[in-house]
Amino acid sequence: MKPFLVPALVLPLVSAPAAQPPLKIGLDTQATEWIVSLEGGGQICDRAGKPVLRLAPDEKVRIWWDSRGVSDPTSEYRIQVGRPLGADDAAALMAHLRKLGEPSDRVKVPDADTWRVLVGHFPEAVKAEPLLQKLQDLGFEELWVATESRSAQPRKGRALYAVTERYERRALPLGGVWLKPAGELTSLNGKGRYRGKVEIFPNAQGRLTVVNTLDLETYLRGVVPKEMGAWEFPSLEALKAQAVAARTYAVANRGKRAADGFDMGDTVADQVYGGRDGEQALTDRAIQETEGLFATYGGKPILALFMANCGGHTVDVSEVFGGDAPYLKAATCYPAKPLTLPFASGVSVTTEAQQPWLTWDLLRLAADIVPVDWLSGERLARPATADDLAAPVLALQRRLGLEPAPLSRQRPLMLALARALGLEQVVAGQERPQDAAYFLPSEFPAADRLLATFLTRRGLVPAAAWAAPEPPTLRQALAALGRIWQDLEPLALGEGSLLMDRQVRRKRGGPEPLALSPRLLLAEEAPDGSLRLVPKADIQVGDRLKWIPDGGPAAVLVRRLDPDGAAWDRYSPTAHWRVEYTEADLLALVRKRMKVPGIRELRAQHNQEGRVLDLTLVDTQGAVHRVRGMHIRGLLGLKDNVFRFLTLGQGTQRRWVFYGRGWGHGVGLCQTGAYGMALEGATFQQILQHYYPGTELRKVD
To answer: Do residues 564 and 526 touch, judged by C-beta distance below 8 A?
Structure first.
């Protein structure tokens, strides 16, 4: 087997790094009260560390900010004019707006060296509409109503209290408190448990800010499993790549939200952080084995952007956040040549192009009960007889521990199968003549009516079979036999993914060998669930396999053709998606960000990989509205910008159907793609080099 062909990344390591200063992570800024407890008990102190209140182990206390029922909004609405710009271009746009009588501000884009130019301050989006119309009339096409943090002066004269379980109210310092457990963890009810230092203090909007201060490596233990958890991506190399990216992102974005009293939040706006409750053993190992490593360019930590799923190809940062970074260029998420492993059937199988008759029930029967050569269209199309089925029924009786009994030659044959497997014993008292009259033809023999009703109600024999003038085919009879077997002994399929060493990673389990019978029956399952027998198959590493476990080597192996194809990022439920809107629903979405009377048409400009770079909305009055970058998916409520769409119907009955792939902004490391690369043998260094070209791994002082 050839090794993965991405060149190895050179790792110039410098001397042991100085300790990184602690990170301050904002856990919340909206609530006015928190119920807290401290592991092993502990103390509530002022923020300088002076004890104020002692808590016993397991004791809960409510930290309550008396805002007197008044809290200021934490956000406001502003109009962004144009896309993110470099500093000089942003200054020129601001000067132009000033000449037009509209003073503006600029806000730095955290994930790029660009600036957004904003005008106006509005408490509600609808109040921005007059200014939107004015700017539109002045010729500005790319306008966007953005939600922005609202600055405010700290409130005066409120009170902070601790309310104990005995409903005693104790005044706390107005500046806030530091929760100091005797053990390691501070618990915030409804939020989770946190290592490190937890502080709660009033903010300018009349609410409480909660900040968790801790060292970088401990912070990563709560980030990596939330961003790329071991349950979804059980590959150490992929998780190590994520650990380096998350570490680098944290250092490069330190102080990003200093105005709010912390460095970063705990949501997707920065990095998702779950504290102690998010930690996992495999992600802990990934963090430990990459401790202190950063992705750097020119000796400095990069803006290590990443997203869940890139839709088959990442995109240059200039198309999303503006600016330019040589390590954030577009990269494919497809291998140059998919890594496949050969498998072959151990028995002769039909090569018919279409096998509409093949089912899991038939595959199960062919593994142990009936000869494999029965699985051919010609053989299965013949009329079934009791002589055909006598041996399979006897084998199934033994398998189920039933008393062996000969198969009756009575008609219909389906009833004989059911009686041979004991099902007539369960119909008395279960079925009624009225039910039989509901399901069966009136002329159906009275002695058989209750059993036939039971078989129909259980879905073991189609109702139409009882009125068929011809005897059942062998396929129909075997299908009924297989369904009866499934009813008496449900099949629990083995499921897993193929690994490079021909092992499988079982669903909800770890890697292990899969023993295959020398008389293996090989099949493929299409995305629509249909099955076909194949004499051999080159199965791509990572493809999902199913097999029928029977206490020994698997006699039936089914490869599922991945509905998301061959890309590295196919291991995600969002690799492909479909979204449909009515005319009214789409218009309501658009009006959250633009002032439009209605939608005449949408026009999308795509790059070669199908990503929409520029979206033009023409409204019903002919005005043109242009949207680019991150705003495209935000305007349409989609997961990603990799999409095409159809418009169906007319007028108010029009529907918009979007077919797309991917989830996220598309810049930097593709988390699902990293997992796919790791499955095919890539190291974490190779993964990082692929998505961040030209970078070096360093221990940064």
So the answer is: no
Domains contained in the chain, CATH given:
1-21+215-332+663-701 (no CATH), 75-149 (3.30.70.1070), 339-382+473-565 (no CATH), 388-452 (no CATH), 577-661 (no CATH)
- In this predicted model, what pLDDT tens digit does every residue of 65-117 receive, in sequence order? 987 655 667 788 899 998 888 889 999 999 999 988 899 999 888 777 788 99
Task: Report the C-alpha gap between 618 and 579 in whole angstroms.
Answer: 21
Contact 31, 25 (CB under 8 A): no
Closest CA to 238 of 670, 675, 570: 675
Q: How confident is the model at residue 10 (pLDDT cuts 50, 70, 90)?
A: very low
Cα end-to-end span (Å), the chain = 40
3-state secondary structure 533-567: ECCEEEEECCCEEEECCCCCCEEEEEEECCCCCCC
- Describe the strand order of the beta sheet including 624-628 as a list of residue ranges: 599-606, 612-619, 624-628
- Is residue 552 packed enough to be buried (19+ CB in 10 Å), middle (13-18) or exposed (0-12)? exposed
3-class secondary structure, 117: strand
Which of 636, 634, 623, 629 lies closest to 141, judged by CA?
Answer: 623
Record the tokens describing residue 30, joined without a space: 């909206």
Spatial distance between the Cα atoms of 657 and 642, rounded to a whole number of angstroms: 14
640, pLDDT greater than 60: yes
CA contacts within 13 A on the Cβ side of 144 = 25
Tell me which of 5-9, 44-48, 137-141, 265-269 is least confident: 5-9
* Stated length of the chain: 701
Phi, psi (5° rounding) for residue 611? -85, 135
Give CA torsion, residues 553, 558, 559, 562, to 10 deg.
-140
The mean pLDDT value for 483-493 works out to 94
| Nearest residue to 286 via CA among 232, 327, 228 | 228
Return the structure tokens found at 180. 């100091």
Tell me what the mean pLDDT of segment 672-681 comes to: 96
Name which of 579, 624, 609 is nearest 329 in CA terms: 609
Q: How confident is the model at residue 165 (pLDDT cuts 50, 70, 90)?
A: confident
Dig out the tokens for 665 from the structure. Answer: 């902004």
Question: What is residue 71's predicted lDDT score, i.e. its pLDDT?
Answer: 61
Q: Please name the helix (run of DSSP H) or strand (run of DSSP E) that holds residue 392, with its range, or none.
A: helix 386-400
Q: What is the amino acid identity at position 157?
A: G
Please tell me whether residue 506 adopts helix, strand or coil conformation.
strand
Phi/psi-derived region of residue 136, left when phi > 0, alpha when psi is between -120 and 50, beta in every other case: alpha
Residue 660 has pLDDT above 50, yes or no: yes
Could you give the 3-state DSSP secondary structure of residue 90? helix
Query: How many CA atoms does the CB half-sphere of 37 hold within 13 Å?
Result: 13
pTM for the full predicted model = 0.87
The pLDDT mean for the chain works out to: 90
Of 282, 351, 286, 318, whose CA–CA distance to 522 is shortest? 351
Asked, as a colleague might, if the bond just before 73 is cis with ω within 30 of 0, I would say no
Q: Is the C-alpha dihedral spanning 169, 175, 181, 186 positive or negative?
A: positive
CA separation, residue 476 to residues 148, 382, 385, 411 (Å): 65, 10, 11, 14
Give one DSSP letter per residue of 651-672, joined into a string: GGG-EEEEEEE-BS---SEEHH
CA angle at 249 for the pair 253 and 16, rounded to the nearest 5°: 100
